Amino acid sequence: MRIDVLTLFPEIIESYASTSILGIAREKKLFELISHNFRDFSSDKHKCVDDVIYGGGAGMLLKCQPIFDCLDSIYNQIDKSSSTLIVTSPSGQKFDQKLAKELSQKQNLIFVCGRYEGLDQRIVDQADLNISIGDYVLTGGELAALTIIDASVRLIPGVLGDAQSLEQESFSEIDILALMEKYQVSKKELQEFLDRTGLKTKEDLKNVKFIEYPQYTRPAEFRGIRIPSVLESGDHKKIFLWRLEQSIKSNALI
Ligand code: ADE
């Protein structure tokens, strides 16, 4: 995957994308990220990128010319028809894990990061997607773009370490009923479990996502706070049922 980011602050994008898991994945060429300062494309002698709003209104808007020219230079390098142009704004479609999965399978993503009062509508109208990362207003699109990039890139095969990605796969495909059998959970234990968790039948377990239970590392007691004793019991069935119960209580979404 190749990701292009149009921004007035490439250092924000570069800093995050070259750190930790994203940085390693980028070095391994599991994805390519190129940030472009669209100010460089301004034909204005002062490299101006914004202008007043037609019809009146407070503040300034990012104008078409630098961004359109920057996009043209990208389209000279990639196949425009296989690329997805994304703008971000609080009024866009809400970002979620399903959209992250879809984007992780694209060949080319291009983000235009807004600043000031936003983008000239003719830029917005070029976009395939307008995405919001939540019901609040940021000062610019960079954090939104990075959020979307982070959540999507981690789903590209190979980006997460082996252990993490296996875990991720098993979370989505895990067969809880098979695990119940593996741990030889008795009818009585199962009924008690269903009563405790508020599930009606065994079949309800099929819709449960086994993820997001609390985890602890050493020491077992820190500043007087002990880990749940079940985790030290060595009883794998009990630990499994405890984790599953916590997972159900957390309403995990993935
Ligand atoms: N730009 C400013 N606020 C935003 C938000 N909530 N989501 C996406 N982009 C934004």
CATH homology-level superfamily of the largest domain: SPOUT methyltransferase, trefoil knot domain
CATH class of the largest domain: Alpha Beta
Mean of residue pLDDT values: 93
Count of runs of 4 or more consecutive helical residues: 10
CATH architecture of the largest domain: 3-Layer(aba) Sandwich
What does the main sheet amount to? 5 strands, parallel
- How would you classify the quaternary structure? single chain
Bound ligand species: adenine
Class from helix and strand fractions: alpha/beta
The gyration radius over C-alpha positions equals 24 Å
Helix content: 25-40%
Shape summary: elongated
Low-confidence stretches: none
Strands in their spatial order, largest beta sheet: 2-1-6-5-7
Terminal Cα separation, in Å? 23 Å
Topology pattern, helix = H, strand = E: EHHEEEHEHEHEHHHHEEH
Total domain count: 2
Strand coverage percent: 15-25%
CATH topology label of the largest domain? Alpha/beta knot
Quick one: how many beta strands? 9
What does this structure look like?
The chain has helices at residues 10-17, 20-27, 64-75, 97-104, 121-124, 142-153, 162-173, 176-182, 187-197, 236-250, and strands at residues 2-7, 32-37, 50-52, 60-62, 83-94, 108-112, 129-132, 221-222, 225-226. It is built from ten helices and nine strands. The chain is an alpha/beta fold and 254 residues long. Bound molecules: adenine. Adenine (ADE) binds next to strand 5.
What structural keywords apply?
single chain, about 250 residues, alpha/beta, Alpha/beta knot, Trp Operon Repressor, Chain A, 2 domains, five-stranded parallel sheet, two-stranded antiparallel sheet, binds adenine
